[in-house]
Design brief:
The complex is a heterodimer of chains A (75) and B (205).
Chain A: H1 2-9, E1 20-25, E2 29-35, H2 41-45, H3 50-62, E3 69-74
Parallel strand pairs in A: 2-3
Antiparallel strand pairs in A: 1-2
Chain B: E1 3-8, H1 11-22, E2 29-35, E3 50-56, H2 60-74, E4 79-85, E5 89-96, H3 100-103, H4 108-121, E6 130-135, H5 138-160, E7 164-165, H6 171-180, E8 187-192, E9 199-204
Parallel strand pairs in B: 5-6
Antiparallel strand pairs in B: 1-3, 2-3, 4-5, 7-9, 8-9
Helix pairs in contact in B: 2-4, 5-6
The chains are: A alpha+beta (75), B alpha+beta (205).
Chain lengths: 75, 205
């Protein structure tokens, strides 16, 4: 899943090496934290959060067959 | 991106010489004319060569293809990808076993993938290209559903003599509804609200 998030985000930004995903898991949910270079923040959020929403839609679709709830935080 | 500047007696000749240097064809480059050149008197006095800047276009459709392929792979879905492209539009057709996962409820995952691919394809280029991502003919089937819905709701609007609101849809789905009812004299249509909650309203005349 971490690899999926990185695959989605890297081509969108100008500093792909600064894309970082960390993972925090407990019994019923997995929370992913995405951080990018400070100049790329707009590129992963977008106008009215449109890009962030699209990223989450794809990530949540991929997580739909796991039985844990998945969250994606974008910093 | 590779580019060269070339000169010649005419613009055509300058472009030709640039293409030879880049070892490519006219379809795969973007041409900027810097100077049209001047013939001069008797081709002797005051003549100026034509100058052009020719840039090799990266094959952006390949980038989109690779992007979609990678995402599908990381989602654990095997897909076949078919690419159809022209000047303004690149269409990716996905097919495979677990394709439903890539479409999602009312196509929301497919729309998200289409939006992201559009961003990747149009990153750092001047000439905007429309990107369409389709899976197992989903968009065609969806269009048929939308047209039927438009017909049904237009009749309802006429019957009850009140405006009928549709649910929020992305722009190209709204366009299908507007187009479907364009020639239907008894109603008019418009869109209301702010993206992403913009929706079609059917109004009886």
């Amino acid at each position: 899943m971490k690899a999926l998030i990185e695959t989605i985000v890297r081509p969108l930004v100008d500093h792909p090496d600064d894309v970082n995903v960390t993972e925090e898991e407990n019994d019923y949910k997995i929370r992913y934290h995405l951080t990018v270079h400070e100049n790329d923040v707009g590129k992963v959020i977008g106008k009215n959060g449109r890009i962030a929403k699209a990223i989450r839609t794809v990530v949540y679709a991929a997580g739909s067959d796991s039985n844990k709830k998945i969250y994606l935080d974008i910093m | 991106m590779r580019q060269v500047t070339a000169t010649g007696q005419t613009v055509e000749e300058a472009i030709q010489s640039a293409l030879e240097k880049l070892e490519t064809t006219k379809e795969r480059v973007e041409v900027d004319i810097i100077d049209e050149g001047k013939k001069g008197v008797f081709g002797l006095f005051g003549s100026k060569p034509a100058i052009v800047k020719v840039s090799l276009l990266a094959d952006k459709s390949k980038e989109g293809e690779e992007y979609l392929r990678q995402i599908a792979e990381k989602m654990g879905i095997e897909v076949d990808l078919n690419v159809i492209k022209n000047d303004k539009e690149i269409q990716y057709e996905l097919s495979g076993d677990k394709i439903a996962m890539l479409i999602g409820k009312r196509g929301q995952t497919l729309n998200a993938l289409q939006y992201l691919t559009q961003l990747v394809v149009n990153k750092n280029i001047d000439r905007y290209k429309t990107v369409i991502v389709d899976a197992e003919g989903y968009r065609g089937r969806r269009n048929d559903t939308l047209k039927q819905l438009a017909d049904r709701l237009a009749q309802k609007a006429v019957r009850i003599q009140k405006e009928v609101l549709l649910e929020p849809m992305p722009s190209y789905e709204r366009k299908v509804i507007h187009t479907a009812l364009q020639n239907y004299q008894k109603v008019s249509t418009y869109s209301d609200g702010v993206e992403p909650n913009r929706r079609v309203v059917i109004k009886p005349e």
